[in-house]
Write a structure and sequence with these properties.
The chain has three domains: 255 residues, HUPs (Rossmann fold, 3-Layer(aba) Sandwich), CATH 3.40.50.620; 156 residues, Ribosomal Protein L25, Chain P, CATH 2.40.240.10; 122 residues, Ribosomal Protein L25, Chain P (Beta Barrel). Helices cover 26% and strands 22% of the residues. The protein contains 13 helices and 25 strands. Strands 10-23-24-25-21-22-11 form a seven-stranded mixed β-sheet, covered by helices on one side. Helix 2 packs across helix 11 and helix 7 crosses helix 8. The longest helix has 16 residues. The mean pLDDT is 95. It binds adenosine-5'-triphosphate (ATP) and magnesium ion (MG). Adenosine-5'-triphosphate (ATP) binds next to helix 2 and strand 8.
């Protein structure tokens, strides 16, 4: 059975591509890229960008590159590179041979910089950082030319080569594009394009002591890779004029041919009850508010995977929310609903008792066991049925018995009959209690002719239908009930500190009684525990023959009620 969602709706980016294809701009070519900086783990926001870029390439018969934008050595590492590769694969996307590192283009970037110097489009500035800031002006006042702006091309080239050779300390000079210090767009007031920084790079080691600035490097990376549409988030909108300026100059210099890559901005994903800032995510991990980057409550893709969310649910979610030009918030329940839809289609059903109390069937023979048959998926009979053992003592949910029933309660109470799902109808006879009044066992008698699937099964009508697990056969396991990590829709919104809004009850660890087949679950096997929600065998803590389970999501959105 295929679970692919229908083709995504039109959006403004698709419209741009369609128009360009009609005009023959790229000859039908669509080449996108996902360009993470390897300075953290990917999160739900990145997933939107991944699904968008790889999705466009897929739908237009193009390719999408995975490119590490590693121009900022101090914060980057191989650990992050590895986890990013794994997460993009996990989301179901394939870059083929198109795996690139910006750092592999450092030579070309350097050559481009020398060309800009020689052609009068860049100069070495020697102002202090403070002075440079003061000279830049403000949003309302133009900037002033640096006294070094009029250096000759020869002098600039000599200084730049000596910067590269390591003759100057960090920060002594910067190379700047020579554009317009009076531009109303601050990003065009001679932006820095190279700085001196003695830092070990995860890929190039100590080869370089000057590094290109992100805003300079990125357009060049796109042009080298013949990217057609360079899709980024809205905060780069004001950088677009520089992106175009730079590539235009370098095309004039023969480095690249036209048409040049086109930057297109879209609104980043903001999800309620979630923080997506790398700085905040690092803080959650370092201050041990969570167990690590892959804590199932983290909005990282490694966390989402452990939580049991599906890659397909991510793709469905991004298709559903679409792409827009203006920032907004998406409710977390929309994300959960996409996941629930996918899990509802694909997860096999199993039985689990999360808050167990014994049910003793007094008229059932001691030591006898028989099989009952439960469907693996009620809407998909072709997935078959499995045998579940039935015996004299069962585990049932504590909440499925009330000594004194409240109004409208149809489950077990003295004198009432219910169906043990896939088994017999039983009539409740009473309960045992300990000295504190806590119920220790519920008693009942079964009606032998009412077994599900046998001819007389429906002769007795009952209103309640409860699940159970044979006590002698049950697999007792740790189950983690996860909930949202924050209690407010926009963490930190009112108090200013997002940590004040941490949900103290975001995880509850319990011992549950599970049907015996669950003992053989492999890591990452997903199930619906009937009446409880969707669960996954934890990929980290499960052992062979001893899986532990994480709740991915409940069956219904319990927060809707809580918010009212
Ligand atoms: P940084 O502040 O470190 O740059 P970042 O979240 O932008 O953080 P990158 O590694 O630069 O991280 O992001 C890679 C790509 O993912 C970029 O193209 C970025 O625009 C996109 N991206 C990041 N966050 C989101 C988000 N919340 N929604 C959509 N796309 C995002
Ligand atoms: Mg970024």
């Amino acid at each position: 059975m295929s679970h692919e969602a229908p083709a995504p709706a039109a959006n403004f980016i698709r419209n741009i591509i369609d128009e360009q294809n009609a005009a023959g701009k790229w000859g039908g070519r669509v080449e996108t890229r996902f360009p993470p900086e390897p300075n953290g783990y990917l999160h739900l926001g990145h997933a939107k960008s991944i699904c968008l870029n790889f999705g466009l390439a897929r739908d237009y018969g193009g390719v999408c590159h995975l490119r590490f934008d590693d121009t900022n050595p101090e914060k980057e590492s191989q650990e992050y590179v590895d986890s990013i590769v794994e997460s993009v694969k996990w989301l179901g996307f394939d870059w083929g041979a198109h795996l690139y590192f910006a750092s592999n283009y450092f030579d070309t970037m350097y050559a481009c910089a020398e060309y800009l110097i020689k052609s009068g489009h860049a100069y070495v500035d020697s102002l202090s950082a403070d002075d440079m800031r003061a000279y830049r002006g403000t949003l309302t006042e133009p900037g002033k030319d640096s006294p070094y702006r009029s250096r000759s091309a020869e002098e600039n080239l000599d200084l730049f080569r000596r910067m590269k050779a390591g003759e100057f300390p960090d920060g002594a000079h910067v190379l700047r594009a020579k554009i317009d210090m009076a531009s109303p767009n601050i990003n065009l007031r001679d932006p820095a394009i190279y700085r001196i920084k003695r830092a070990h790079h995860h890929n190039t080691g100590d080869t370089w002591c000057i590094y290109p600035m992100y805003t300079y490097a990125h357009p060049i990376e796109d042009a080298i890779e013949h990217i057609t549409h360079s899709i980024c988030t809205l905060e780069f909108e004001d950088q677009r004029p520089f992106y175009d300026w730079l590539l235009d100059k370098l095309a004039d210099g023969g480095f690249f041919t036209r048409p040049l890559p086109q930057q297109i901005e879209f609104a980043r994903l903001n999800l309620t009850y979630v923080v997506l800032s790398k700085r905040k995510l690092i803080q959650l991990v370092e201050e041990k508010h969570v167990s690590g980057w892959d804590d199932p409550r983290m909005p990282t893709l490694v966390g989402a995977r452990r939580r049991g969310y599906t890659a397909e649910g991510f793709r469905r979610f991004t298709d559903q929310i679409g792409v827009s030009k203006s920032d907004g918030w998406i409710d977390y329940s929309v994300f959960e609903a996409s996941q629930r839809d996918v899990l509802n289609d694909s997860a096999h059903r199993r039985v689990a008792v999360l808050d167990p109390v014994k049910l003793v069937i007094d008229n059932y023979p001691e030591g006898q066991t028989e099989d009952c048959f439960a469907p693996n998926h009620p809407q998909q009979p072709d997935l078959g049925k499995r045998a579940v053992p039935f015996s004299k003592e069962l585990w049932i949910e504590r909440e499925d018995f009330m000594e004194t029933p409240s109004k409208g309660y149809f489950r077990l109470f003295p004198g009432n009959s219910v169906r043990l799902r896939y088994g017999y109808v039983v009539q409740c006879t009473g309960c045992d209690k300990d000295a504190n009044g806590t119920i220790t066992a519920v008693h009942c008698d079964y009606l032998p002719d009412t077994k599900s699937g046998t001819p007389g099964a429906d002769s007795v009508k009952v209103k309640g239908n409860i699940h159970w697990v044979s006590a002698a056969h049950a697999y007792e396991a740790e189950v983690r009930l996860y909930d949202r990590l924050f209690t407010t829709a926009q963490p930190g919104g009112e108090s200013g500190d997002f940590l004040n809004d941490l949900n103290a009850d975001s995880v509850k660890v319990i011992r549950a009684q599970l049907e015996p087949a669950l003992k053989d679950a492999a890591p990452e096997d997903r199930f619906q525990f009937e009446r409880h929600g969707y669960f996954v065998a934890d990929r980290v803590d499960s052992k062979v023959g001893a899986p532990v389970f994480n709740r991915t999501v409940t069956l219904k959105d319990s927060w809707v009620k809580a918010e009212k």
